[in-house]
Amino acid sequence: MDNNKIVVFDTTLRDGEQSPGCSMNTEEKIKVAKQLEKLGVDVIEAGFAAASPGDFDAVSRIAEQVEKSSICSLSRAVENDIKQAALAVQKAKMHRIHTFIATSPIHMKYKLKMSEEEVIKRAIHAVEYAKTFVDDVEFSLEDAGRSEISFMKEVMDAVISAGATTINLPDTVGYRLPTELGAMVKELTDFANNRAIISVHNHNDLGLATANTLSAVANGARQIEVTINGLGERAGNSALEESVMAIKTRGDAFGGVYTDINTKEIYATSRLVATITGVEPQQNKAIVGKNAFAHESGIHQDGVLKHQETYEIMKPEDVGVIKDSTLILGKHSGRAAFRDKITTLGFDSVSNEELNSAFEKFKILADKKKEVTDDDIRMLITDESLNQDKIFELVGLQISDCSNGVPTAAVSIKHNDGTMTDANIGNGTMDAIFKTIDRLTGYNGELQSYNVTSVTEGKDALAKVTTRVVFDETSPSFVGHGLSVDTMLATANAYVSALNSYLSQKERLAKKTEHQV
Ligand SMILES: CC(=O)SCCNC(=O)CCNC(=O)[C@H](O)C(C)(C)COP(=O)(O)OP(=O)(O)OC[C@H]1O[C@@H](n2cnc3c(N)ncnc32)[C@H](O)[C@@H]1OP(=O)(O)O
Ligand SMILES: CC(C)C(=O)C(=O)O
């Protein structure tokens, strides 16, 4: 094993999905997993297979479709969780089971209600049982950040002897300061003495997640658990883009360590995750925020114009931000220029159907907008690939509303080769649209969240709408995406898109159950 290589373990699809409002459906998770593979992550934690049939389905389908990254599922130190994890990852070319139990006094006493002896017994059994399915077993000492070093050593000894190949030391509640976490990692790395890889998984409750990850690397950790855009439970996890770019930019400070991440794919991955979850990184977010490479003040602009490195420690191109695109697309552009542009933007696996449909939308957009920007094109392609299931398709929308009038929506929807039209009134325009769609489709959605952002600046900017809708009490919420220069049209499309997502997931799970019976 190369001692300078840092294993990048991405948990966007597991811990990232634990961010409130960030759940993704199976198709969306597959898209993210394939992009993570392209990004070059070593391990993809694809979910927690035992958590629900939907999670199991997502992990197993990712296992079937991703080849270059190892696929992993999380499981408690519980036999059935481990078995579900093993079944879900079994078809992957490379796979791992990640099992865990908490080792801090507070978790053992109040949450697990177990003694230290019981925890060690459960940990050993979990690893031994996982080993009956796979060779690669990771064990996490949950809440390591608040655990006692002497007890952690006992647990580590026991699980390494049982066959654990990676030992993860999560700072579950983001409690540790970088100096303290570094000291803990150093002591436990020395203790492990190369019998297992030492990993860290840092939460951001005090805004220290990435600093802690880097301190761990400087002190011997050789796996980092990270998420795209820093998503994760509560304040999130250490962001992949931050840790990886810090290692790349300041490798000299870490004794020459490196990752195998293709950093040019970072921006595309961040955009994909933001679009799918509807959660945009803050504008001043390091590496992927809208302002990360923007220079506002005169002295800075003057400096950058004279020599880029006066105010930039990384090149935007190194993380895949394309600033100087020379090919301007507009209404006179053809398919060749469009294809060339999307390839330049990094979309090299777009099918012909996706390209043709996106090209049609581009032409409509180009008629309405003076200049179609790279961000517009990026959104058109992403939206196209996210809205493949067209069980219901919105084909017409007319709204009327005035200050003293009654908000009304007339909607036409295509379904099974037929088109249905209906109209309804509501408390507001959006309410009227949703009520009409509900009546036409026969489903009654409950809107949980609604988010609208503009893709670029200007009065003619594209509106990107993300809706999160619940369609029945037994299913989770489903995310829908809509894109248009007209916000209400984008809203209607996003609502229909969430319904399509719900119906296709339901259909797939029903087919799966039929097969199993
Ligand atoms: C720090 C982290 O991010 S951990 C990962 C968090 N992810 C998730 O929780 C995934 C989503 N979770 C779920 O779907 C559910 O919680 C399930 C399916 C895992 C379990 O559901 P339930 O059986 O209903 O249990 P519930 O969630 O109410 O409580 C968790 C139980 O697991 C126990 N437990 C928690 N962690 C572990 C562990 N690592 N090993 C063994 N048992 C554990 C708890 O003590 C509790 O046991 P109790 O019911 O005897 O008190
Ligand atoms: C289960 C572990 C890895 C975790 O997510 C945490 O402790 O935060």
From TrEMBL:
Its cofactor is Mn(2+). It catalyses: 3-methyl-2-oxobutanoate + acetyl-CoA + H2O = (2S)-2-isopropylmalate + CoA + H(+). One of its GO terms (cellular component) is cytoplasm. Its EC number is 2.3.3.13. Mn(2+) binds at D15, H201, H203, N237. Keywords: Amino-acid biosynthesis, Branched-chain amino acid biosynthesis, Cytoplasm, Leucine biosynthesis, Manganese, Metal-binding, Transferase. The keyword Manganese applies. Signal peptide: none annotated. It comes from the Bacteria. Residues 393-517 are annotated as: Regulatory domain. It holds the Pfam family HMGL-like. GO terms for molecular function: 2-isopropylmalate synthase activity; acetyl-CoA C-acetyltransferase activity; manganese ion binding. Residues 6-267 form the Pyruvate carboxyltransferase domain. The keyword Amino-acid biosynthesis applies. One of its GO terms (biological process) is L-leucine biosynthetic process. Pathway: Amino-acid biosynthesis; L-leucine biosynthesis; L-leucine from 3-methyl-2-oxobutanoate: step 1/4. InterPro entries: 2-IPM_HCS-like, 2-isopropylmalate_synth_dimer, AIPM/Hcit_synth_CS, Aldolase_TIM, LeuA/HCS_post-cat, LeuA_allosteric_dom_sf, LeuA_bact_synth, PYR_CT. Homodimer. Catalyzes the condensation of the acetyl group of acetyl-CoA with 3-methyl-2-oxobutanoate (2-ketoisovalerate) to form 3-carboxy-3-hydroxy-4-methylpentanoate (2-isopropylmalate). NCBIfam families: leuA_bact (TIGR00973), PRK00915.1-3 (NF002086). Belongs to the alpha-IPM synthase/homocitrate synthase family. LeuA type 1 subfamily. This is 2-isopropylmalate synthase. It comes from Malaciobacter halophilus.
